[in-house]
Amino acid sequence: MTGPGRTATGSQAGPLLDVQGLRVAFGGVDVVKQVDFSIAQGEKLALVGESGSGKTVTALSLLGLAADAHCRGSVRFAGPRGEVDLLQLPESELREIRGRDIAMIFQEPMTALNPLFPIGNQIAEVLQLKQGLDKAACAKAVVELLASTGIPEPERRAQAFPHQLSGGQRQRAMIAMALACKPRLLLADEPTTALDVTIRGQILDLLSALQREYGMAILMITHDLNLVRKFADRVVVMEKGHLVEQGAVSAVFAQPRHAYTRKLLESRPRRDVVEDDARGAAAVQTPLLCAERLQVSYPVPIPGIRGWFRKAAFVAVKGATFSLAPGRTLGVIGESGSGKSTLALAALGLLPFGGRLVVDGKAWGGGGSADKALRRTIQVVFQDPFSSLSPRMTVEEIVGEGLLVHQAALDKTARQQRVLQALDEVGLDEQQFPNLLGRYPHEFSGGQRQRLAIARALIVEPRLLVLDEPTSALDVTIQQQVLQLLQRLQRERGLSYLLITHDVDVIRAMAHDVLVMKEGEIVESGPLAQVLDAPRHPYTRKLVEAAL
Fold first, then answer.
1. Tell me: the pLDDT tens digits for 237-272?
2. Can you tell me the distance from the alpha carbon of 375 to that of 365, in angstroms, rounded to the nearest whole number?
3. Which of 70, 316, 393, 396 has its CB surrounded by the most CB atoms within 10 Å?
4. Would you say the pTM of this structure is higher than 0.90?
C-alpha cells in the first residue's frame, strides 16, 4: 500500500532527490522562493550562499525540521520503499525516513550532541531506534563506526562525553551517528566551519571516502567556496531565497553567469597594507609588544590518590619569544590546542605567565593605575561578536563602556559624541540605522556586530589590537569587508595587530610577520613571504598545503 505522497514504483531511474517549486514561509513571508534542484545517487552537490540566503532553511525543510515553517512545492525522494513526496508525508512516516534513509550533520557538534551522555550511547540510540539492534550488537557497531571515521582508540572514545573530545573528534562522532544506518542521502550543514584548516581537509577526505564506500549522495550546505571547489560535483547558488545559478563546479567557477556568483568568487581576502619598503624607518622602531621566553601553564588533576595533595601542570605556551613593531601585524597561526589563543590572553594580561612580556615599554603586574593604563594601550576583538556583546546593553552602553573606565571625566554629551564618532569610523551611522545608540546587538547582522566590537575597542584609542579569529564566523563577502576596515584603520591610525587565526588566506591579506605554533611551541617565525612561500618546517608546509 502506498501512503500520502507515495507512488507504487520503486524505480531508481530518476534522481535520488528532486526538489521542484520549493517555497518556505514563516509568518506568511517567503524566505525560500521557488527553488528547483535535484541530486543523483552518489552525487556531491553544494548549496552555497551568504547568511540569510535560505540555504540552511532549504535543507531543514526537506526533512520537516524547520520549525513553524509553511512549505509548498514538492520534494520527491526515491527511497527503498518507493518514491515519496517528503512534503506530503505525515510526521510518523517522515520520522522513519530521518536518520535511516536521509541523515544530517549539523554545523556545531558541541550544541548538536547531548552533553549529558557519552557519544557511544548517542550513536547506539540511533541503531536501537532505526535498526532494532540489541545492546551487544549496538556496542560493537558503535566502535566500528567510530573507527571508520578515524577516531583513535574508538573503544575508549565511545565512553567519552562531548566536552572530552576535540572539535575534529566531535565532528567525526557526528558523522558516525549520521552514517549509523547507511543513509542514501547525507545533508551536511557547514560541517567544517568551526574546524582548523588541516582538520577541515581531513573531514572532507573522510566524507569523500565514506561517500564512495556507501554510495550515498551528499548535499553540502556551505559558504566556503574553496571547500566547494575541492569537494563538490555540482553547485547551487542562492541569494535572498532565490536560486540564481547552478551547474557543474568547474563550469560555474570558470565562467559564472550571475553577478552574485561573481561577487562570491571575488570575495577572497585582499592584501592592502603598508608594506616594509613603503614604511621606511618605521619598521625598525622600538617594539610595541615584546615577549622573551614566555611560558603559560595550567594546573591539571593527577589521577589517583596523589591528586588529593597536588596537581600537575600543563604547559600551553613553551618559551615563546617574539616582538611586534608599531603599525605592523603579527599573525599567529596554528591548529586548535597549539597555544595561540593562550598566547593572546597572556598578551592581554589576563593570564599569569613566566618569562618577560612588555607592552609599550611596561610590564603587566604593576597593579592599579599601571595595569589600567596598559589596558587602554591594548584592546581585543573576539571571534564571535554575538557572544562577546552583552544582549542587555544598548549600542551606546556597549561602545561607551571603555570611556567610563578610562575617561571618567567626560560628561554624557561628550561621551555620546565620542561613541557616534567611533561608530561612524567603522561604517555605522544613524542615517543607516535610525535610533542607532538605542539599539541592541540582536538587531544587527554578524558583520555589523563585529563592527560594533571594533568600535568598542577603538574608542579608548589603543595602539595595539588583539584580533582573535575576527572573521572566522562571517560569510566571505562580510569577511572581506571587515578585513578592509581593519586594514584602513591600521593605515590611518598606525595600529599594531596581534592576529590569531587558522585561516592562511587571512594571514596573507593582513600579516607582515608570522608565528607558526604547534603544541605550545613556535616552530617557525619570520616575514610573511619567508614563512608562507618558502616554509622550512614540515608543519608549516602542512598548513599551507591544506589551504590551497
1. 999 899 999 999 999 999 999 999 999 988 888 899
2. 12
3. 316
4. no
CB proximity list for 440: less than 8 A, separation 6 or greater: 391, 392, 393, 394, 395
> Are residues 356 and 287 in contact, defined by beta-carbon separation less than 8 angstroms?
no
Q: Which of 175, 177, 210 is CA-nearest to residue 191?
A: 175
| Alpha helices, H only, 307-357 | 340-347
The C-alpha atoms of residue 476 and residue 145 are separated, in whole angstroms, by 34
Walk me through the domains of the chain, giving residue ranges and CATH numbers. Answer: 1-40+70-82 (no CATH), 98-185 (3.40.50.300), 276-360+463-547 (3.40.50.300)
What secondary structure letter does DSSP report for 302? P
Check: CB of residue 31 under 8 Å from CB of residue 57. yes
Could you give the CA distance from residue 155 to residue 147 in angstroms, rounded to a whole number?
9
Chain mean pLDDT for the chain: 87
* CA separation for the pair 249, 231 (Å, rounded): 9
Tell me the angle at which helices 119-131 and 135-148 cross, rounded to the nearest 10 degrees: 120
Query: Which of 370, 376, 371 lies closest to 407 in space, CA to CA?
Result: 376
Reported as half-sphere exposure (CB side, CA atoms, 13 A), residue 220 has a value of 29
For CA atoms 255, 258, 261, 266, the dihedral sign is positive
List all residues 6 or more positions away from 121 whose beta carbon is below 8 Å from its beta carbon: none
For 495-533, b where at least 16 C-beta lie within 10 A, e where not — what string? bbbbbbbbbbbbbbbbbbbbbbbbebbbbbbeebeebbe
**Who contacts 184 (Cβ-Cβ below 8 Å, separation ≥6)?**
16, 41, 79, 80, 101, 102, 216, 217
Rounded to whole angstroms, the Cα distance separating 11 from 317 reads 60
Going by C-beta distance under 8 Å and a sequence separation of 6 or more, which residues neighbour residue 370? 362
| Phi, then psi, of 450 in degrees rounded to 5 | -65, -35
DSSP 3-state helix, strand, coil percentages of the chain (rounded to 5)?
Answer: 40, 25, 35
- For the segment 527-536, the average pLDDT, to the nearest whole number, is 94
Candidates 250, 294, 351; CA nearest to 517 is 294
Q: Are 343 and 320 in contact (CB under 8 A)?
A: yes
Residue type, 208: S
User: What are the pLDDT digits (tens) for 366-403?
Assistant: 666 778 888 999 999 987 777 789 999 999 999 999 99
Read off the pLDDT of residues 213-230 as tens digits, 9 standing for 90 and up.
888 999 999 887 888 988
Q: Give the count of beta carbons closer than 10 Å to the beta carbon of residue 209.
A: 13
Residues 179 and 215: beta-carbon distance below 8 Å: no
Nearest to 190 by CA among 51, 390, 87: 51
Could you write out the DSSP letters of every residue in 474-519?
S-HHHHHHHHHHHHHHHHHH--EEEEEES-HHHHHHH-SEEEEEET
